[in-house]
Write a structure and sequence with these properties.
130 residues; 0% helix
Length: 130
C-alpha cells in the first residue's frame, strides 16, 4: 500500500493563552489489500485552546473533525465522519503529580453502519514523573 499524508499546524502563545490548530490530508492507494483495489481518502482538522487560570489549574478545549472515504463508493466499504469536542482540565496536585479530567462529546458520529450510536467517554488520568 502506498500512502501519502500532508498537513500543517500553527500555534500561538499569547500571555496565559495557548492556541493551536492544524489540518492533515491523506490518501492510501490500497489499504485493504490487492483484492479490493479501492483507495481511501482521509481528512482531519483539529484545534486546541488552553488557558492558565492559576499555575496549578489549566482548562482546555479540543475540537477534532475526521473524515475517511473510499475512493470508489460502489465497493460497499464504510464511510466514517466524526466530530469530537473534548473539554478538560489539568490540575497540578503537587510537584511532579498532575490529574487530568476530560470528557469526550461526539456531536457527529457516522461510521457508515446502520444503528451505530455515538460513544461518549469520561477520562481521569494521574501522571507521576520523577
Amino acid at each position: 500500500d502506498n500512502h501519502r499524508h500532508f498537513g500543517f499546524a500553527a500555534r500561538a502563545l499569547v500571555g496565559r493563552l495557548d492556541v493551536g490548530a492544524g489540518y492533515v490530508w491523506g490518501r492510501y492507494d490500497d489499504p485493504w489489500g490487492s483484492d479490493f483495489g479501492v483507495g481511501l481518502k482521509t481528512r482531519s482538522a483539529f484545534a486546541k485552546v488552553e488557558y492558565l487560570v492559576f499555575p496549578w489549574l489549566i482548562p482546555s478545549l479540543k475540537v477534532e473533525q475526521f473524515d475517511a472515504e473510499p475512493t470508489d463508493f460502489t465497493a460497499g466499504l464504510p464511510v466514517e465522519h466524526q466530530t469530537r469536542i473534548i473539554p478538560g482540565v489539568v490540575a497540578l496536585i503537587r510537584q511532579n503529580v498532575r490529574g487530568i479530567l476530560e470528557v469526550e462529546l461526539l456531536p457527529r458520529y457516522d461510521i457508515g453502519q446502520p444503528g451505530a450510536s455515538a460513544p461518549g467517554s469520561v477520562w481521569f488520568r494521574l501522571d507521576v514523573a520523577f
